[in-house]
Amino acid sequence: MPSYLPSTAALLLTAVLAAPADSGHARVQKALDQAVAAGGAPSMVAEVRDPRGRWFGAAGVADLRTGRKRHPRERFRIGSAAKPFTATVVLQLAAEGRLSLDDSVEKWLPGLVKGNGNDGRAITVRHLLNHTSGIFNYGNDREEFAKLSGPAWLEHRYDAYTPERLVKIGLRNPRSFEAPGDGFVYSNTGYILAGMIVEKVTGRTLAGEIERRIVRPLGLTGTYLPGKETKIFGPHPRHYSTLFVTDPGAKVHDVTDQSATTGWAAGGMVSTVGDLHRFTGALLRGTLVPPAQQREMFTMVKTGIRLPDGTWKDTWIPGTTYGTGVFSWKLSCGVDVWGIGGAITGGFSFAMGTRDARRMVATHVTIDRYGEHNSLDMSRIVLEAEFCPPRPDGR
């Protein structure tokens, strides 16, 4: 085990020193209630950790059929919040001298990245981790999106994908911009390649490396990267989706059971609000990687591209910058928060906080709603309820 990791005992001790719930987070609770009442979310939870202790709030129900309530230890699919786990393993390998972020993809995966303007010799590991590779995001492939949205998703929800297949789907599309490093376009394909490089360097599975290097040292009791199983192990809420239909009256489907192989290193993991707190806090404090790799993790790039006419185009969440798996988000009040987040068919989750991790919020909403009352806005409103000062009207 790398020597720079803190002891599990110390981390567990820190985790249990939490004060009982209090009424100091009424604005957060109100935002959760609004997500359910006005936004149509089946449920939403938030856990706040600050110097006063720990507070957990919930709205809605974990299961629309039974009316079961949410609780803090539930596990859920975290989507792209899996990326910082993959990035952390890569950075640890760099700290151990087993790879360099300046290594080309070609060095570790010879002959794999080519075609449609892609050249694995020109794309580095760093480009993969900060989404500046220009490799097309396989999730936006027209053929695959048709299978993984709308009623077709229900027919393909258990389809198993290999990492190689996901990469090939991405590479059959034109690049997002000409040269690696010339812009930022979010690409799950890049993180699939990063996961493949981890396995090539270590000779072990990515799931095993995440377990050995992060989950066990941090004492994350509800976090794992699934294999081919399609059910979530342990207690969990049901996950719901309109399958990308944006009409306010769109039918809501139970999508809890599904293949995680479509996300893998880019978005296939399961976790809890408590585990996301502990992991994100470790990232912000720099306890998972040495200082040089910590600086690399928080070397941020703007999330967009410069168009030929010189104008700027946001290609991700407005007001964000991205490092390696982590990002900053400027809220509407001008406050910057830092952390991780992700979406998957069935929900959105975020763990964000101050840069020193003294004040943090982890959220999870059990629907991936787009269009009006979308899940991203629900998550942002909860963050703003905690981090932004109250407005004159009290909101």
TrEMBL record:
Domain Beta-lactamase-related: 29-371
Signal peptide: 1-21
Protein origin, superkingdom: Bacteria
Signal listed as a keyword: yes
Listed EC numbers: 3.4.16.4
SUPFAM superfamilies xref list: beta-lactamase/transpeptidase-like (SSF56601)
Keywords: Carboxypeptidase, Hydrolase, Protease, Signal
One term of GO molecular function: serine-type D-Ala-D-Ala carboxypeptidase activity
Broadest EC class assigned to this enzyme: hydrolase
InterPro entries to which the protein is assigned, alphabetical: AmpC-like, Beta-lactam-related, Beta-lactam/transpept-like
Name of the protein this chain belongs to: D-alanyl-D-alanine carboxypeptidase
Organism: Nonomuraea soli
